[in-house]
Amino acid sequence: MELLKDKVAVVTGGAQGLGLAIATLFAAHGARIVLADLNIDAAESEAAALDGSAQRCDVTDEDQVESLVRTTAERFGSVDIMINNAGITRDKTMAKMSAADFRTVIDVHLYGAWLGTRAAAAIMRDQGSGSIVNMSSISGKVGMFGQTNYSAAKAGMVGLTKAAAKEVASRGVRVNAIQPGLIRTAMTEAMPQHAWDAKLAEIPLRRAGEPSEVASAALFLASDLSSYITGVVLEVAGGRHI
Description:
This is 3-oxoacyl-ACP reductase FabG. By secondary structure, this protein is an alpha/beta fold.
């Protein structure tokens, strides 16, 4: 069953990690994929494997984000799904974190998601339908040591999601967010064993999540299976911090 047959999906930060997992599952369900990433070589390589396309995009650049969405709409005739996934980390305690590292993380996650939401919503309002999914984090729910920048950005994405959902719902556009917890990726598996074990101990399901499980949540929110759901935050965290 192809839940996204003939839908057009844009995924920022789509050349690797969770973004690529989401794009891969969407493609398997019939979506036409546009991978947006700063690493255009990786994006083009992965897009080719998905029979999709790629575009270099700095999500903190208003012109580039608007070009990404506009170009997608012109090429494919619509933008049905927007996944605002691009992100970075600059972890340090407040005492050691520079103002630049704080602002950079806020800009990529929160400002980038706002630019993507705004650009996609403009197209979706006119076509009378669409689904926007913002990739927040469980860090935006509870706050994590050494992540005042990341936690603030991810919490802000929740407020953005809820406010935007109210603004565009009457035009058939839905806006939701996902908060992944401990997901098994190259970045998390590089953590020291003691840190990994401490986080694992907080999870009732007693295991880390897989990128495919986050992708499945995104598929649900992007598809008509969630047609009466907007403005929600879906935790994919194994029960951590409930």
